[in-house]
Write a sequence for this structure.
């Protein structure tokens, strides 16, 4: 049932937000030195840089750019708000193309004051509006279902089933899903829906971290792999059985871990990757 | 789509935990004085009292005892732990019978160190072990699915679909569900599963509160109805369409609201019940 332990770092990707105190330059240098092979670049880390130059610099270090994080937030109370969101996503697509990131992860958005069904409709419309940009640049979009505790104002897409449904309805080879264990681990339909993502050719990204007990903050108290209760090797087995051969991306938001020495922490990340992922 | 506003308090029940600073005696007196018609008694509020006398005292005030909160926590890492949990639930059933509460709400339990599927199996076995006690006392049990953010150590039952599945598999008129909007509002299958609970004759209880944005604590930052984003009248319409005619139970855990004057707060509760529920 469980996947075999990972024995090398060849499929390890780390998100810049995981070591948030570091700049993009320091993250990429430290990642490369530690043997990490992939990097997912957050847009805040890229701010103020020329994306093409930043991308070249990262590749020169021997790192693959796995994705740009993040687009989305399509749901908005006004038509003007929704247009602005689409424009912002167009800029993200241009940025990804310049950076050399093949994929953008979408946090789809939600508006507390409107029904979730309405937000989901707006999300699907927003993604559909971007498909020409995807076609012209080759950039793909990954719908990331977020944990139901974020349904109020971050994402109206809260299960992999919903994300798969949206992928099916959009019918584009440029649109798939990002499966993040933090958001999905609790779902008894997860194995079946991961398999479905695979059948759809839509399993674009796989994110790992852990769920701590107790969790003291809804946003920034994620655990490093092995610190919590998520059955990481069981879920990785499902993902690999669905045909996924991409990077295992370490995405940890943690005030606790951001406050530690980030070089020591990066060593812990590689150890947790081999020991628990 | 929405239910008509409630125009009187005849179906209003308040949980003792909602006004936690008050004793059971003060809660029941204040509730009765405010025109509340039902009370759900938490076991911690009952501690140290004779349940039969407490029940009589509550009924003498004109209140209906809607349920005893809470049993459950069947999942445990050891067989001894699971036996102890069943024994504790037997005591809860005896307590409910003495109190005169027809129903016990079950928070089913979870163990971070074991797979959710294993916890769910233990939960079903635990409930099954109690069915003779239910038959002899007439006490019913309501499986309350808890929000997925509690899947680590509070409940491995996280959707109404899972609760309905468990009700179907247990095949007992004594076992149903408690639908709490706080746990379930995000689920796109909620309308269908509420209807299914109704068809099963299993919709035993309905709990209301609201989801605040931002939510600052995973446990004790619930909102009063109207303070958040839950579509309360939409969900009540589904519940009533499923045949539910019981109490609308106000169950709010809030450090913020517990810190306020509870008499003023109780006035706010009745106003929020009529204005937003």
């Amino acid at each position: 049932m469980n996947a075999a332990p990972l024995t090398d770092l060849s499929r390890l990707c780390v998100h810049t937000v995981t070591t948030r105190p570091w700049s993009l330059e320091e993250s990429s240098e430290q990642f490369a030195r530690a043997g990490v092979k992939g990097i997912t670049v957050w847009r805040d880390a890229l701010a103020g840089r020329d994306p093409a130059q930043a991308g070249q610099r990262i590749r020169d270090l021997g790192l693959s750019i796995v994705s740009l994080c993040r687009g989305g937030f399509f749901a908005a109370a006004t038509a003007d708000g929704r247009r602005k969101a689409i424009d912002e996503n167009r800029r993200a697509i241009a940025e990804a193309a310049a950076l050399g990131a093949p994929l953008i992860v979408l946090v789809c958005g939600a508006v507390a004051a409107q029904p979730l069904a309405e937000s989901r409709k707006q999300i699907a419309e927003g993604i559909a509006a971007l498909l020409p940009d995807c076609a012209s640049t080759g950039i793909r979009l990954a719908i990331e279902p977020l944990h139901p505790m974020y349904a109020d104002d971050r994402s109206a897409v809260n299960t992999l089933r919903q994300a798969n449904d949206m992928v099916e309805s959009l019918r584009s080879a440029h649109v798939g899903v990002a499966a993040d264990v933090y958001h999905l681990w609790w779902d008894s339909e997860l194995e079946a829906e991961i398999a479905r993502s695979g059948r759809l050719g839509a399993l674009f990204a796989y994110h790992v971290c852990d769920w701590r007990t107790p969790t003291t903050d809804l946003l920034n108290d994620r655990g490093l792999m092995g610190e919590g209760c998520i059955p990481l090797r069981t879920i990785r087995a499902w993902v690999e059985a669905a045909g996924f051969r991409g990077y295992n991306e370490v995405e940890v938001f943690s005030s606790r871990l951001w406050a530690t020495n980030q070089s020591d922490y990066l060593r812990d990340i590689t150890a947790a990757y081999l020991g628990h992922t």
